[in-house]
Amino acid sequence: MPHQLQHVRIEVSNKVYLKNPESSELGRKILAHGIEMIDALGMECFTFRKLAAAIGTTESALYRYFENKHKLLLYYVEWYWACLEYELAFGTANLETPEDGLRRAVQIVTRSGEALESDPFDRAQLLRVMVAESSKSFLTKEVDAENRVGLFAQHKSVCRLLSGLISEVAPSYPHPSSLASLFLGAHLDQIYFAAHLPSLSDAGESEASRYKFFETLIFNTIR
Fold first, then answer.
1. Other C-beta atoms within 10 Å of 143: how many?
2. Mind listing the pLDDT tens digit for each residue in 102-135?
3. For position 69, which CATH number holds?
């Protein structure tokens, strides 16, 4: 990771939270312990009551930061996409050819990612939560209303960036956004399948195998 990126502070849209959790010690505890509990329990069993007990506060204190546990999940999901967007922007700049840029982007997405100095929670736990829970952030009845107020802006920004890279390589390819969003979702799915439903994946066990699979898939598709 470029040295400059280590000092970047990731920002999540204020539409996700009621009070910025990074603005106080309690808020930072919510982020750090919340992701630990979601990783361990899953969203179905995770509650604000359990989180409040774990960090020695009240449920009402948590609700001053997040409207509900769904919004807390959205915070983690959007933080992941915002960080990935920074990594892609830095990592694909000033490369010699569009093909180099797209290959580098596939490599960045399929690797685990390095921790930033400003990370408010454990990066390995974040990836596990993304793999297991991120689809629950948008597979809801409220998705259209949440989209209208901009709650998925970071995810869409990453998709636009990848779509642009695809179009640079193959200007006549008609489905760059579909291919970009397919790749972003399938990458997380392959990690999940490799861990829990291994007969559904032979590409998810390592970063190298995921990179090779998706690099081949994307370039063969757009040629």
1. 13
2. 999 999 999 876 666 677 888 889 999 999 999 9
3. 1.10.357.10
